[in-house]
Amino acid sequence: MQGANFSAVTEFILIGFSTFPHLQLMFFLLFLPMYLFTLLGNLLVMAAVWSERSLHTPTHLFLCALSTSEVLYTFAIIPRVLADLLSTGRSISFRACASQMFFSFTPGFTHSFLLTVMGYDRYVAICHPLRYNVLMSPRGCACLVAWSWAGGSVMGLLVTSIVFHLPFCGPNVIHHFFCHVPPLVKLACGDNVSTMAMGVGLVCIAALLGCGLLILLSYAFIVAAILRIPSAEGRHKAFSTCASHLTVVVVHYGFASVIYLKPKGPQSLEGDTLMGITYTVLTPFLSPIIFSLRNKELKEAVKKTFLSKLFLHRS
User: Fold this and answer.
1) Is the Cβ–Cβ distance between 143 and 64 less than 8 Å?
2) Model confidence over 101-128: pLDDT tens digits?
3) If DSSP codes are grouped into helix, strand and coil, which group holds residue 32?
């Protein structure tokens, strides 16, 4: 019976931007440069970290891993969105939809885990500076990055498996611009859909809140340590090392909270689409800007490695 239900739906129709028929070209012209800038910014960060030996530090290693997750996350969603904005047919096959969910949720969860690891890195640097080289050794940092990706992969596989093992036997219209969990669950049929949907929601919220609480705990110790620094200059220098990470955390968890922790109730398609844009397009666009502007070493490395070579090549 369940196999028959699976065969009933072979493709889905994405109608996220269909409520803005006169704005689709404008969205395309807005999203395309933002996506290209996101790719370029993150690739520059990754290349600068790997090419400059002075940036072979735990902080920049985590930043490089974070940029990798941003590139993979946006690559799983935005090219499809750009293509749909220029076409009238917005169908996506069952398997392609499942693949998109897995390859977007995996770097999405990994992003949260890496932000948590970066919070721990700042905690060790400020609260235990004498033990920093021991606690954040190259091997230890590599393990933290590997565990973040492993955890993200497991979470992405778990969520995708639960959702796509639900029977889909009715309408196939997804009220979103990519294969996201809530609109897909609404299309499922069967007696256990509500239970499975609650399970998926609890998994996502538990991961979000768990990482958020660990970051808050890290910064509670960081703030307490900074307040014990006698000089104002020392306090400012210590806080400046956390500013970029803290800003990205606020942006990331602020938008994610709006999506996952919003009160239940009737939601318009327009509202869901606009909120979805914030964490699929805007947040990845802002991250490299924040880290590049607030990280002096990274900014100088980008100028030295790429801009100087570009000017020399032109001359």
Assistant:
1) no
2) 999 999 999 999 999 999 999 999 999 9
3) helix
Q: Is 88 helix (H, G, I), strand (E, B) or coil?
A: coil
Amino acid symbol at 172:
N
**By three-state DSSP, how is residue 92 classified?**
strand
Identify the pLDDT of residue 234: 82
Per-residue model confidence as pLDDT tens digits over 51-68? 888 788 888 899 999 999
**H-helix or E-strand containing 170?**
none
Cα torsion for 124, 127, 130, 136, to the nearest 10°?
A: 0
Residue 139 belongs to what H/E stretch? Answer: helix 138-164
Beta-carbon contacts of 269 under 8 Å, excluding residues fewer than 6 positions away, are 15, 16, 19, 175
Residues 51, 65 contacting (CB under 8 angstroms): no
pLDDT of residue 55: 81
Rounded CA gap, 302 and 23, in Å? 36
For residues 64 and 49, give the distance between their C-alpha atoms in angstroms, rounded to a whole number.
Answer: 7
pTM of the model: 0.88
Rounded to whole angstroms, the Cα distance separating 178 from 163 reads 14
